[in-house]
Design a protein that fits this description.
- It is a single chain.
- The protein has a single domain, classed as Glutaredoxin, CATH 3.40.30.10.
- About 40% of the residues lie in helices and about 20% in strands.
- The protein is built from 4 helices and 5 strands.
- It has a 5-stranded mixed beta sheet with strand order 1-5-4-2-3, covered by helices on one side.
- Strand 4 (about 110-115) and strand 5 (about 120-125) form a beta hairpin.
- Helix 2 crosses helix 4 (about 130-135).
- The protein is elongated.
- It starts with a helix and ends in a 5-residue tail after the last helix.
- The relative contact order is 0.21.
Amino acid sequence: MSSVVIAGLAIAAALVAACLIGCVVNQRSGVLREAKPSAGADQDHSDLGLSETGPTVLHFSAVWCGPCAAVRRVVHQVCADLPDVAHVELDIDAHPVAAKRLSVLSLPTTFIFDAQGQQRFRTAGVPKAADLHSVLQPLRV
């Protein structure tokens, strides 16, 4: 085989692999995943402004982040329906230590904390309002 054919096959294989990886990443975007029971159990979250009377939706954003506005709209909608759920938005540029402590690797990243300050769920991307409702409902006191 000529080097042109080999290069063409290598490029085609790389494109197929990139498409498959992209599909997997897109399917996981916005999906709320349950946090491990010990995730953040020994961490101090007092600097995050979490509610002590009910669950808190915390999301990291930035002015330069386009999808962060969509998260803000979804969270405001859910919190309007569930008035005992608090909403905290932190700018990642202003709170890099908190973002690092919570292992924020991409924006937007959203966390659900219970009234005791334990991380219960997290997602990267824009969560669906119905998904937020379904995980917040059992956490309400």
